[in-house]
Amino acid sequence: MIVRAKNLTKVYGKKEKFEALKGVNLEINEGEILAILGPSGCGKTTLLNCLSGLDEPTSGEVEVLGKRLDRMNEEEKTIFRSENMGFIFQFFNLIPVLTAVENVEIPLLISKNGTPSEIRKKALEWLERLHILHRKNAYPSEMSGGEQQRVAIARALINNPKIVWADEPTGALDTKNSQEIIDLIINMNKELGTTFVIVTHDINVAKKAHRIIKMDSGQIVSEEILVRG
User: Fold this and answer.
1) Rounded CA gap, 60 and 15, in Å?
2) 99-127: buried (b, 16+ CB within 10 Å) or exposed (e) per residue?
3) Which of 75, 97, 143, 206 is spaced 20 to 30 Å from 63 by Cα?
């Protein structure tokens, strides 16, 4: 088990309160691809943000790699995320004034993990691995959505994270590019053993996972284990 959540709640607002999470319990196994499926507003992204430490739960426990995130301060969580996690977002979150290779380098530059030449070499290796090396000097505005998401995946994986959180990673892509991105995630999971948690509203994306949990109104309402060849 790599992640455990116990009685997780998240309440927004003071006068007009909204319960985004209502006592969620969840365990995520090391090396699995877990899909969190559900309609817009059901609490999927809130759950991902609380599990990853991007957001603070109102109550409950979050344990990742044996460490209690709910007991860490913001600085401790930032360091922990940089050392152990990667993130993939729907709208890529690439820095527009940086080239593809410069965007991929960011996690290693932040963690100061290597010399500039070592970091550049590793970034280029990841771009090649994800079949986007030919766009290394392109800026985000010059790339297609599929190309930008490949760069974002390279950025998420360059630090060899134990777990990658993906929030609607195919939401801004067409069907062809969506399939290619999900195939890349599956291949990286098989090759590296990286745990992936994918938030999605698309059942076709969810069916590529090892396990699906369905959410509605801030709660997990069902779980399905899938068998993939």
Assistant:
1) 22
2) bbbbbbbbbbeeeebeeeeebbebbbebb
3) 206
Q: How many domains does the chain have?
A: 1
Q: Please enumerate, as own/partner, the contacts of 15-20 that have beta carbons within 8 Å and a separation of 24 or more.
A: 19/218, 20/46, 20/218
Structural tokens at position 62: 């979050």
Beta partners for residue 216, in sequence order: 219
Backbone angles phi, psi at 211, to 5 degrees: -150, 145
| Residues 169-190 pLDDT 10s | 998 898 888 999 999 999 999 9
For residue 216, the domain's CATH number is 3.40.50.300
Q: In which domain, by residue range, is 179 found?
A: 3-225
3-state secondary structure of 208: coil
Q: Do 178 and 205 contact (CB within 8 A), yes or no?
A: yes
